[in-house]
Amino acid sequence: MTEQTTHSSQQHEQTGHPFLEGAYAPVREEVTEFDLPVTGRIPQELNGRYLRVGPNALGVEDPKAHHWMLGEGMVHGVRLRDGKAEWYRNRWVRSASVARKLGEPYPWAVPENDFAPNTHVIGYKGRILTLQEAGPQPYELDGDLSTIGPCDFEGTLDGSFMSHTKFDAAADELHAVTYHPTWDHVRHLVLDASGTVTRTTRIPVSDSPMLHDFALTERYVVVFDIPVTFDRRAAEAGEPVPYSWNDDHPARIGVMSRDGGPVRWFETEHVYYSHTLNAYDDGDSVVIDLTTFPAPFLVGGRGSGGPAASGTPSLDRWTVDLRAGRVHTRRIDDRPQEFPRIDESLVSRRHRFGYLASTAPLYEGYDSVDGRPGSREYDNALIKHDLERGTSQVHRLPKHATAGEAVYVPAAGSAAEDDGYALAYVADPERGATDLVILSAQDFTGEPLARIHLPGRVPMGLHGSWVADAA
Question: What DSSP string runs through 248-287?
């Protein structure tokens, strides 16, 4: 059964705007469907919600002035319980602007830098939070994906938050490194078991760099000060994303105790640090597995309405030798891959396995210039890495079967690190819709355990989470 709301964006098909077309094309309506059809069998123990957020532009007036990263956030969710797919929902996050465009009241005080977060959605302390960086507060959703309102953690968040928080389950701490174009520093925030910000450490930096992600170990916070910095001239000229590659800005890694204190800085190569798989302490070293793009990486893009890259992302290992004062870099895998994930219970601790996605539309969009596609073709796949053995397995997908980020969910009572499931949205080009695919992590190249058939498309998006039911 399908329920369709009256809310829709009044958009039309565009040409020559790759971040508004194909896999990126925004959906126009909010849909609710119950009792989803399934091919295969959903594991009975998967009780919770698979959620993913991404930009979904609402009413683009001038496609040439639009940038994908500024599309209003829309969350797509599937509710699983007792071996059934109970529902699918997609909802725009109701910021003040979204509420106005949809003709709805906005019942809360409008936060400073208000925006409908489009980058990550997490579960935290019984809440569902959508996240953004460089200014906006999180927004909280309820279990049916309706917006509860902006979240400032009981008044303890002062200013910006971030997209990629790190939850240390053993310590019951949520960590973030936040930035804002007007600051001369970045901030390391710690939220303790109370769910409020209990410590803020300011780390001085120059040029207002963009810090999309960071790394956390049991002992240290690792900050990536990269050569993508705030561009005041671009802002004054009205550029939608005023951050530029800055060859004059040194690339470096900062290592600071989790308790605060002085930061040790280490020079590194000029690359674009994209996402952390995980990090951990190894004696006098800090080991970081991460994805990087070659320089330069152009956040504002090359006239196509989204970011642009000089090449595809790879999986690397950076080892910070604290005793010798050097950073050793090693390429783990140069195949195109992004959106790295691990078993979240191992954040800040030694890990063996990682899960990444090879997503053709992402690289094709980043390769375009002035709306024209590049000449290279890319594959869609999900990749499992065994970082202890140095091997990998590839779950290959058909052409046009766009793969989203694969979230790992451990099986109940699992003893092995890969005893669990990988969940990802995957486009079904034959249906013109999307499936939620569930793979056995220990049979990664085999047939999916289940394909849950959604009623429509989930556009190319960003990050998500498995939010398990309370025990």
Answer: TSPPEEEEEETT---EEEEE--SEEEEEEEEEEEETTEEE
Question: How does pLDDT run across 317-343, given as a tens digit for each residue?
Answer: 999 999 999 999 999 999 999 999 999
Q: Contact, 423 vs 406, CB < 8 A?
A: yes
The answer to whether the CB of 26 falls within 8 A of the CB of 12 is no
Please choose, from the candidates 427, 409, 452, the residue with its C-alpha nearest in 3D space to the C-alpha of residue 34. 452
Inter-residue contact 90 to 76 (CB < 8 Å)? yes
Q: Residue 196's CB: how many other CB atoms inside 10 A?
A: 15
The CA distance from 127 to 21, in Å, is: 33
Three-state SS at 154: coil
How many Cβ atoms from other residues are within 10 Å of residue 307's Cβ? 22
Which value, in Å, is the radius of gyration of the alpha carbons in the chain?
21
pTM of the model: 0.96
Nearest to 402 by CA among 381, 430, 431: 381
Burial of 31 (0-12, 13-18, 19+ CB in 10 A): middle
